[in-house]
Amino acid sequence: MKPINHNALFAAVLKLLRPLTRILLRNGIPYRTFADLARWVYVDVATDEFGIEGRKQTDSRVSIITGLSRKEVRRLKQVNFPTNEEALFRFNRAARVIAGWVKDKRFVDAAGKPKELSIASGHSNFSQLVKLYGGDVPVRAVLDELMDVSAVQMLANGNIRLLADSYIPAGDEPAMLGILGTDTAYLIETIDHNIFHPDNRRFFQRKVEYDNLPAEASEKFRQLSAGKAKKLLELLDRWLAKHDRDVNPEVRGTGRMKAGLGIYYFEEVLDEENPDKTGQGGQL
Hints:
Elements: H1 6-26, H2 31-49, H3 59-66, H4 70-77, H5 85-103, H6 126-133, H7 139-148, E1 152-154, E2 160-162, H8 173-196, E3 208-210, H9 215-243, E4 281-283
Antiparallel strand pairs: 1-2, 3-4
Helix pairs in contact: 2-3, 3-4, 5-6, 5-8
């Protein structure tokens, strides 16, 4: 693999650090704390992924790779930073329950709309839904979680009505920050794969943008893209569910893989007098 252009890499890193730094400063995180996190990740990645095959990774080699002293490498190996696994687990659990409620034929009516479910009575009920899609967790805990984000409504007759067809952890900062970590990491890992692993299959990575739109067109595009993206993700969700062993234990095959597709919307107000670019756009 030919050497990469470091200037281009530095420019890219500065761009991705800008929104991250904005989040850190907004939450009162000083530079020293960020630097500690960065040093820890440098040591962790160098230890796990940059060893010599067949040989144990040493502190000396990690020190050479990272530019940190051996003393600092040893210190950082003893540090345990929070992983936010609990928030991510709750997010995944709630999202799977709603997805099952929306697409599983046992929990939708003849028109394909999610049924109102009782807690435990009847052929298809909320407890059964949670058992199938929520894992080994109390039914009440899942119900409370969905009620906290206004995804469901408890009716006067004791049944539960679904109000949202997807899970957005509004007001749940740990879960939202968990999404920041996982989703951004997926995008960067895809770019890493496509740039630095040219011999492997390239992962799909595209976007479309134009930079001289009136505000009215931007608003219309926001609505159009949200509708189209939602339909595409629902289609892909149904396909993946058919092949997922947690949802369909009878599925056979080798290995265990994670795969998915992420879609995001972006917009920015540009300076009409001095725009960064003019007359450019299209699919990348």
